[in-house]
Design brief:
mainly alpha, Serine Threonine Protein Phosphatase 5, Tetratricopeptide repeat, two-stranded antiparallel sheet, globular, SusD-like_2, TPR-like_helical_dom_sf, lipoprotein, SusD/RagB family nutrient-binding outer membrane lipoprotein
Amino acid sequence: MKKNIIIALLALVSLSCTKDLEELNVNKKDFAVTTDASLFTSAQYKLFNQMTETSVNENIFRLIVQNWTETTYTDEANYDLKTRNIDEFHWETLYRDVLKNFKESKSLVSGLPDVQTNKIATIELYEIYTYYVLVTSFGDIPYTEALDIDILNPVFDKQETVFNDLLDRLDENVISKFITDEVGFSTSEDIVYNGDIEKWLKFANSLKLQMGMLIADSDAVKAKTVVSEAVTAGVFTSADDDMKIAFESAAPYTNPIYAALVLSGRDDYVPTNTIVDMMTTLNDPRRDDYFTLYNGVYKGGVYGELNSFSQYSHVSDKIGKDPTLEAPLMTYFEVEFLLAEAVERNFITGTAGTHYNNAVTASIKYWGGTDAEASTYLGQGSVGYSSAAGNYKQKIGTQKWLALYNRGFESWTEWRRLDFPILIAPADAETTNNQPPYRFTYPTVELSLNGTNLAAASASIGGDELETKLFFDKL
């Protein structure tokens, strides 16, 4: 036996001498080549998945804005971010799985002998959007030193500085760089617009419009300039421009809502009485698109309290039982709501009521409704722009909140900005001001790994609390 082993070893040594020794260091199970396209596609998917996710471990924005409430437990509906490290998951997913992959993809594109400008501009646009989500979620964030492998403890840049730099990058590195008659990522690599650069340019301008309106209360002068430039350059003009992806029919690439509501085998959510009762009062034609009936009526659970799944309406089959349900990051109806508000603020010319009607109609049709249903809905005194209660913030804010059902993060941002509808925190809420959170608290892991810089960031924003308002939220 020993002789056979020695002979085998000698044969191996002899064989190895005739081959490149570097082959011994190659892991045959690894991908031989990582491409810019594979990293780009992976980062896209991770971004859409996180923004669409509804697991209580990963994304509770639908709970925060009182679209849904819980049945099995109530911690997350009461804004407990720490027990399940929800803030940490949001933070790490966007930095590690999204921004890091986009950065590496851009590096590979930049290293090609024939650099494709449209590819770099598209990646840059995604990076800007992702940082926009982070800064509007947390406030001060790692930015200039983020993702640098040589900097283990990055500083937190001031939220206003980050936001203003994102606007500059949007102009200088994206909008001015797109070349509409040249190619970018291929139709198989670009899972949103299938390589249509004109669509990407429209999304860039629409994001600029959204970012301009975000600072309407904190810096009206700059907001007006940003918004006017975006509208002049060309924003979404129809639902065909929506920035969205479609998921696959088979796991693990189904819509994460389907994974949480069907594949999990759990019954954790019911729609809230907050939204169900409002839509019933307004005779909203989208109710059957949003909810199921319970004993012939739409009945929502009490927000923040323990609710029996069997005693209330459920999330509609259209939303909960379609694994391929599309997931948008921005839609035409959102743009029309922004334009209505921009007119009211005298940022652009036009008729606010027309844009408002366009927005509501587009939302109803997005869910499968008709022009006739939209006309009937808008014809009610409680809905019509000239007759609905309140100022423009209340009218637009209320209808936008209804239209953004199932779009938790976007709904949360608009609620913080417009302050409508009035949302009251439940009795056991983690917040102390009777309101939903104004921001996410910093991840606990940052306290242990980057405590000095986190402490500086906390002091800069006015305290690492759920009740701390961010730079744009002035009223």
